[in-house]
Structures are given as C-alpha cells and as structure tokens.
Write a structure and sequence with these properties.
Helix content is about 15%, strand content about 35%. By secondary structure, it is an alpha+beta fold. The strands form 2 sheets. The chain has a 7-stranded mixed sheet with strand order 1-5-6-3-2-8-9. A 3-stranded antiparallel sheet has the order 4-7-10, with no helix packed on it. A hairpin with a 4-residue loop joins strand 8 and strand 9.
Length: about 200
C-alpha cells in the first residue's frame, strides 16, 4: 500500500497512456511511463523527464518532474501562498500550458491529466490542506500526460516544451522522442526549448 498522499485532476475519465503508441517508448525511456514507484536515482532536483511519442495522428506527451523543480518545496504546503503555488502548478500542467505546438498541425487535446505525489491532499473547493507528514523515502513530484489528435501531422516538425520558462526551478528537461521516423533525445533549458521531430 502506498503511504503518500496524492492530488489528481483530469479533463476526462478516459484512462491515459494505455495506447500501444507508448510500448516502444517504455522500452526506450530511462524513466518509463508506467506509474511505478520512482527510484531515488531518478529523482534529480532541477531535472524533469518528458517522454513523447507520435504515431499516426496521435501525439502523446508524459512528464515526470521532481517537486523541488516545479515548486520550491517537497512537503505539505505550510502557507496559503504555498497552497496556491501547488494548485497553480497543477493547473499549468493539467492545461498543457507547458507545450507549444505549431498551429498548422491542427492538434487538439483529447485527454489530459496531472498529479502531485508526496504533497498533502489539497481540497480545491475549501482550500484546505491535510497536514499529513511527508515521507522522505517518497520524494514529492509531479506527473502529467497529454494526448493530442492532429489533423496535419506533416506540419508537426518541431514543438516547444517551455517547462524551464514556466518553472525556473527546472534547469534541465530531458525529452525522449519516438516517431515513425526515429527515436531521439533532447536536453532543454530556458534558453533552448525546441524539440525537433523531423529534419
């Protein structure tokens, strides 16, 4: 039984990341997209991992980020300002407001979710936080996933992952990509947010 608290918001009840699109990505990625417990080695402060797969008209993007990279704490929020920061971070991740796609690709979100693990449970209606203790062996972090359907995949030659600009605590974002043409890896920072998908 997992002993951490979790806060989750979703746009749709349809489960995400079950598509066969991600099977090769699971083998390729150093983190994997399965929601298995994270190992200490994968929890690097200031570094997030994004897994991206494109197959047919479907583009799927998954994020795994440490809490200290998104926020400046990895515990239950202690103040109203910290509670607001946690809710704001989840809204940005849930709304895919960290991904910039070329308009010509005609991509629309068909499914999205965001989750904060290792923080206390937040009640979005009452604004209350359960001050349950944070367990040090389960570092706090964020997971998010977005699935797009695109009408013109040929126009999807590159995209921007602007996480380091949205969250300055993320100095590095490692992006693993799988497309019909190739597999790739890019390392992004605030000065370089472009991910090339086609030459």
């Amino acid at each position: 039984m997992l002993d951490f608290m979790c806060y989750s918001i979703t746009l749709h009840e349809v489960p995400t990341m079950r598509s066969a699109v991600f099977l090769p990505l699971l083998l390729f990625s150093t983190t994997g997209l399965a929601h298995a417990p994270r190992h200490h080695a994968a929890h690097v402060h200031g570094q997030a991992v994004v897994d991206l797969a494109l197959e047919g008209a479907t583009l799927e993007i998954a994020l795994d980020a440490p809490g200290i990279g998104i926020l400046d704490f990895e515990r239950a929020p202690a103040t109203a300002q910290e509670r607001a920061a946690l809710v704001r971070a989840q809204r940005i991740l849930q709304g895919a407001d960290w991904i910039r796609l070329p308009p010509a690709a005609g991509c629309r979100i068909v499914d999205a979710s965001a989750r904060a693990d290792g923080f206390a449970t937040v009640s979005p209606h009452a604004g209350e936080v359960d001050q349950a203790p944070h367990h040090d062996h389960l570092p706090a972090g964020f997971k998010a996933s977005v699935r797009y359907r695109c009408t013109s995949v040929t126009a999807l030659r590159a995209l921007d992952i602007i996480l380091p600009r949205r969250f300055p605590g993320l100095q590095k974002v490692v992006v693993n990509t799988v497309t019909p043409a190739a597999q790739g890896r890019a390392v992004l920072d605030a000065a370089n947010v472009r991910v090339e998908l086609a030459p």
